[in-house]
Every structure is written in C-alpha cells, then in structure tokens.
Amino acid sequence: MGTLKVFNPVAKPVETRLQPAPRPADLRGKRIGLYWNLKAGGDVALQRTKELLAERFPDARFSFYRGDVGFTMRHLTAREADRIAREVDAVIGTTSD
Amino acid sequence: MTLLERRGIPTVSYTAAGFVQDARRSAVTFGLPELPIAVVPTPFTNQPPERIRAMVEGAIGQVVAGLTRPLPMAEPPREGVVLLEEEWLTFTGEDQLAAAREMNERFLSYGWGDGLPLVPPTEQAIEEMLRGTRRGPDDVVAVLEPGFGLATVKKIAANAVMAGCRPEHLPVVLAAVQCLAEPKIYLRNKAMSTGPHAPLLWVNGPIRRRIGLNSGVCALGPGACSFANTVIGRAVRLCMMNIGHTYPGVSDMDTIGSPLKYSACVAENEEASPWPPYHVEHGFDRETSTLTLLFVYGICELHDFQSTEPERLTEVFATAALNVAQVPTGLWLIGRRADPRYGTEEKEHHCLFICPEHAEVFRRAGWEKGHIRRALHRRARLPFRLLMLNKEPQALATAHPELTWLWESPETLVPVLEDAECYDIVVVGGAAGRGAFFWGAGEPVTKAIEE
Asked: Which of A5, A38, A90 sits opposite B122 (nearest CB)?
C-alpha cells in the first residue's frame, strides 16, 4: 500500500467582509444612476432600462455615468464613486460580461 | 459595485449567464457575496440593439428586486474549482506511483493544475526546493489577485515543485510573483479577462547561465534545451492559478485560451546582442540578474532572410504591429489600462525578440534600439477608420475628445501604439533571420532576482 502526503498548493485568501447597502422599499421618487463601463451594448441596455423603470416609477429620476478611468472597460475611482453616491439613491451597472 | 455599496448605495449589475459563477466568486472575493446581479442570456457585446432590449425586458424584474428587496444569503460559488482548508493532503494507492496517480487525478478534479501531470509537492520536495532561496518559508512575497491569495515562499515553492522546477529556479519564480503583484501590472485585469493574456518572462544577468536558461535555439521551447525556461514559466502559471485563484471558467474567463499560457520564458541572448542588455537599458547593473514580465496576447514571427538594410527590416517588422484584431492595436485612442484603486495607468507595449542575425544588420548600420523604436513607430500606422472598427466610438470621445475630428478624416494614418517607447526589444534566438513579435497587454515590469 502506498501513501503520499503532499502540501496543499492553494493559498488562503485574505478575506474581506462588507455589509450591503440598505435597500429602499421601492424606487418611487428615487434618483437612479445608470453606470456603463463602456463594454459594447451596455448603453443600449441602460437606455432600455431607463425606459422600463420610468414606466413603473414615473417620478424616478435618472443619471448616466461612465467610469472615469480605463480603456475598453472603464472603472470608477473612489472620487467618482463619492460623486455618484452624492447624486443618486441606487445604481444599475453594466456590463459584468 | 462594492465601491458604491460601501457608500450606502444599493446596486445591481447585468451579468451574462456564462459569467454568473465568475461574478459570484468576484463578489465573495470583494467581501460582498450577496451582491445582486440581473442575469441575461448572453453578453450584450456583438448583439443587435433589439436583442439587447429584449434581454433587458426579460431581466427588469431582477433589477428592481436587486435594488429593493432584502438580499438573500448568497449561494457559495460552486463550479469549476474545489478549495480545501487542509494544509496537508494524503493520497493512497497500491504503491507510491499509484498514490501519485491518485493525487494527480484528484488535483485535476479540483481544478488545481494546468492539465499536465504534476510533481507531488511532498514535504521532502518542498524542503529541497526551499534551499533555492534564503527567504523563510512563511515570508509573504505578495498577495495575488484576483483571489487575494497569500503568496508565501512555501506556497510558491509547492507550485514550483509541481511544475518540475529545481531549487535553483525558485529565485526566478519568486521574482515573477513579485512582478505579478506590482500594482502597475493590474493583474486582476489580465488574469480574469476574456482575452488570452499570458505572462511572457525574460531573464537577464548572470543567473541565466548558472541555472541553464536558454536564450538561443528553441528558447521558447519545446525540448530539453529549454527545460529551465519551460518549468519556470509553468510554475508562474501554477502560482497564478493556485495562489491568485485564476482558475479557467471560474475567474479566468478567457474565451479560447492560449498555448502561451502554459509557459513562456526565455533568457536574453546578451552575448549575441550588440546593445546593452534589456536590464542595463532599464537601469540595472549588468551583474544584477533580473526578471521582466509582460503580459502578451499572442505571438507571430519576424521572418526576413532578405533584408540587409535596417530601414527595410523595420518596414517588415512594423507589419506585425498592423493587426487590428489584436486588442492593443490603436487601443490608446480609447484610453489606457488603469487600476482605479492605485491610480496606475499603462500604455500598451509590444515586445520584439530580435534574433542575432537581425541585430547584426542594425549594428552594421550603427542603429541603437532607439533608432529601431522610432522607425517602428513611424511605420506602424493604420487609417483611423480601420483602427476604430472594433472599438466603442463613445470611448474615443471620452478618452480623447480632441481627436474626434478624425471621424471627418477617417483615412488619416494613426500610430498603432502611443509612442516609440512602447516597443520593447530583447535579443533572443539562434542563427537565421527569424525573431518573434508579441502583442503586449500593458507595460512590462522588471524585478531584481534575489539569489
């Protein structure tokens, strides 16, 4: 009978835990951010999203955002995230592929 | 999205079905496993607008739910890789060989390898490997993305054992891991991409000859002559997988893959080069050994048996850069790779492995590397219209509003890279006029190798 004992080559991750943001009961009267990371088609998706949400929540307001750094995909810096957080109550993002 | 959730803003993101596990694993890594997603059947890319609108209509209920309902406990990501807590794992069989086969079968089922047989990382093998460095086994070399794995010397050594490395190879692997962790490399962007980003490594300095690295015939493999090259490159990939948690189909979403991802490591042929070696060019002493890492998309030849003049040779070389289907071609028009967490930016670089024969053509004409770079930058241009065929037009307006006039003059020739310094030159290869060209992803990073 042969036995082989080997070292686990997989690293432990440095773990992080965040609390999710509280959710409102609905989107009536809310300011909604539509964030596009510049991946193709995302702008079309967010425009249709706006149209559909505006039908359901006529008093919601919408703002479009793009990442402030990047190339084929643009990302949010902390500064831009601060700005968005001041201006909206919720964000819909695209695209995580 | 976690940036916004931390600021008290509820979010939800559209995610294609094929990327759900990837998204869930990323959410765990960033500390918010409950992060809601709205799943659509396919990516929005390459879809006609009416199809995109239909997908959004199908997912709008998920969008509203993600923003307004209490978030359920998240299911742990379940596909593609098994992560075990135990420090030591035991396998049995009829004999030791059978036990080793069992280990390989299990590791394959866990997703822990590159698909090739692995050398068992036994206690003895790791102790022997650790003789290759003066660093302690529990020293933390880096934290590797995308999984934020702790890259201790011992974990790196274990992956080096599995790759088939010898102790004298370990310092090079350690330096490569340091390169991977450099913020400018933006590892997360390359490791998790749908593209075939592969780490190309080149070594300079005295260590090349001491450990048998190949800088000549078949330097990129295969063969016994490139044994050191091959196992070092392989160890780096295994570290990316098992320490950085870059697992295919789980976090590495490369649509097709690439043979370069198995291993791509060479030594510069400093002895055949008429110029200062790469590392000296970049500020290191000649007697310091270094490892340079550049992520690349792919390789093609630099073949020319005819040219004896440098202008003609660079004209041939420049054609290799004129491939619009390669991401870096003209990418600068729509911005730069940028990691928002560290404020880093990268220009796209290409790398030329110039063979000694071609280096001699340049030397005879008195050309230094700078001459070659400037000539390449002059010649490697394409019409704006072509460069923008596969790029988001709005990205040009965002990154370079001052260049939007080019839409009115679409045949204007535009350089494919941002400037002449974006061409890296390394002398590699055997006799005969054939070198190699790599389309790069971002910028190279060089680290001294601690022996």
From this structure: A5
